[in-house]
Amino acid sequence: MKFVLPKGRLYKDSVDILRRSGVEIPEKPERALIWSNGRDEFLLSRAYDVPVYVEHGIDVGIAGSDVVEERESDVFIPLELPFGKCRLSLAMPRSKVVSPEDMDGFRIATKYVNVTRKFFSRIGVEVEIIKLHGSVELAPRVGIADAIVDIVETGNTLKANGLVEVAKIMDVSALLLVNRISQKVLFEEINSLIMRIRRVVYGT
Fold first, then answer.
1. What is the per-residue pLDDT across 51-62, written as a single tens digit (0 to 9) for each?
2. Distance CA 129, CA 175 (A)
3. CA distances from 150 to 52, 96, 156, 181 (A)
C-alpha cells in the first residue's frame, strides 16, 4: 500500500499509531520525501495536501479535519483519530469585538477560504475573505483585516496579538483517509488496517 503522512505537528502521532497497528514504517532517511519498507511506500507531504494525494490515488493518509473540510476532497473517512485536537475559530481584536452576525462587509484573513465562506453563508452575512498562508493573526494588527479564522490550540498566540475568539467554527481532529478506488480494489488489506487501527484507538 501507499501511505501519505503529514509534515509538522501530526507526523509523529501518525507514524506512532500506524506502527502500533502493525505497519512497518522504517525511519525516514534524511531529506527523503518517499521511502519504503520493501512492501509499502511512504510519502511525506504538507498536511494541507494530504487529502488531495489520497483523492488522486494514494491509498491511505492522515490529515486534520480542518484540511479535509477546506480541500473538499472526495475521500473515504473510516476513523477519527485521538490526536491533533484543536479548533477552528473566528477571532478579532479584543477592543473591537462584535458578533459574527454583525460582521457584514468585514474583511476576514484566513487560509481556510472555503470553510470561512460556508460559515458566513450559513448565517447570511457577506464578508470579504483575504487568503493568507501563515501568521494570519498579524492581519488585524496591521489593518488589512477586521478578523481572522484560524486554528486555535491554547489561545496563547491570539492573546499575544490582542485577539479573542468570538465563535468556534468547528472542532478539529486527525482523520484516517482512504482513496475510494483503493477501498474497493484493496478491500481486504485496507479493511484489516482499519480494524487494527480501531483496536489501537478504541480497544474494540
1. 999 999 999 999
2. 27
3. 21, 18, 13, 32
Say yes or no: 66 and 17 in one domain. yes
- Are 158 and 195 part of one and the same domain? no
If asked whether residues 118 and 191 sit together in one domain, one would say: no
Task: Please answer whether residues 3 and 61 qualify as being in contact, where contact means their C-beta atoms are separated by less than 8 angstroms.
Answer: yes
Query: At 87, which helix (H) or strand (E)?
Result: strand 86-93
CA dihedral 9, 74, 71, 92 (to 10 degrees): -90
Phi, then psi, of 116 in degrees rounded to 5: -65, -45
Match 496591521 to its residue by C-alpha cell: 142
Residue 204, pLDDT above cutoff 80: no
Residue type, 174: A
Q: Residue ranges of the alpha helices (H) in the chain? A: 11-20, 50-55, 65-71, 113-122, 138-142, 156-160, 180-185, 187-202
- Angle among Cα 75, 79, 85 to the nearest 5 degrees reads 105
**Residue 107, amino acid:** R
Q: 58 lies in which domain range?
A: 2-84+173-202
User: Nine-digit cell at 82?
Assistant: 485521538
Distance from C-alpha of 31 to C-alpha of 44, rounded to nearest angstrom: 10
Q: How much is the pLDDT for 165?
A: 96
Could you give the CA distance from residue 184 to residue 2 in angstroms, rounded to a whole number? 15
